[in-house]
Design a protein that fits this description.
Helix content is 80%, strand content 0%. The protein is mainly alpha-helical. The chain has one domain. The longest helix is centred in the first third of the chain and has 27 residues.
Amino acid sequence: MMLLLNFVQLLGYVLWFLLIARVVTSWITPTGGGGLVAFIYQVTEPILAPIRRVIPPMGGLDWSPLVALLLFGVLVRLLSQLTVS
């Protein structure tokens, strides 16, 4: 059970990092940027697309990365509490 919790926690950290990378790359290279950027978009789009359906972009800003980061932050904290107890 502990191994599974640690894996999910690590996965949460990796996805959180990839979401941050997506936000930064969207500011730096909004038109695309190669293989690494394509990989980041392919990994994060399945996470962001459902959030975008619930909260569409408003005023030209896409709020889905912020919502996803908050959700992953809560998930990682909850899992941290489970591993400590």
